[in-house]
Amino acid sequence: MQYGIIGLIVLAVLGGGFYVFLGSSQDTAMVEKEKMEKDAMMQQEVMEMEKKATMEKEAMEKEVMMKEEAMKKDDSMMEKGDAMMAHGGTYEAYAPEKISWAKDGDVVLFFRASWCPTCRAVDADIRSHLSSIPKDLTILDVNYDNSSALKQKYGVTYQHTFVQVDASGNQITKWSGSPTLAALVSNVK
User: Fold this and answer.
1) Where are the domains of the chain?
2) pLDDT at residue 2, as a whole number
3) 124: closest CA among 173, 184, 174?
4) Are strands 137-143 and 90-93 parallel, antiparallel or unpaired?
5) Beta-bridge partners for 174
6) Is 182 exposed, middle or buried (0-12, 13-18, 19+ CB in 10 A)?
7) Of 8, 30, 48, 78, which is most buried with the most CB atoms under 10 A?
8) Residue ranges of the chain with pLDDT lower than 50?
């Protein structure tokens, strides 16, 4: 009988050990499965973040390209000086030698950026009233984004600034806030 009890005890211990072994291997498998699922979710999130970053970068690059194309278009239009000629004065692209035209009249530098809504409004008003430019006035369109030396020379710190100069390029007066050609002309000294 003693062997029977000992046998039962051995069986109980072995059975319990086997049960614990099966339970721990199932727990390990569940932990591994949860870890794999978590890793997969993290990889998915990383891929989505990379995709979003790529899309944002492409959108920014497209916007920059569109702005550059708009600036080139504005510049090419301004280079057609004969298209900007009016019955009276002129509105045309800046060139250093054109400052000397102040010997025969007034020269105003218009520091303009293609991305500036105020600049675009003034530019449109000037273009729609070319025949109203006084015959002794030359308005020179200066690309604000590409004219660091001129901005420094005249102390221009923001677009939509007008600088009247003499034939030597010396500043006569400087202002901003002319929303129309008429307002611009009224500020010329």
Assistant:
1) 1-79, 83-187
2) 64
3) 184
4) parallel
5) 163
6) exposed
7) 78
8) 76-87
Name the CATH code of domain 83-187 (choices 3.40.30.10, 3.40.50.2300, 1.25.40.890, 3.30.70.1290). 3.40.30.10
- Bridge partners of 111? 142, 161
Distance CA 104, CA 7 (A): 124
List Cβ neighbours of 116 (8 Å cut-off, separation of 6 or more).
144, 159, 160
Angle at 157 between CA 152 and CA 159, to 5 degrees: 115
pTM summary value: 0.55
At 112 the three-state DSSP class reads strand
Give the end-to-end CA distance of the chain in Å, rounded to a whole number: 127
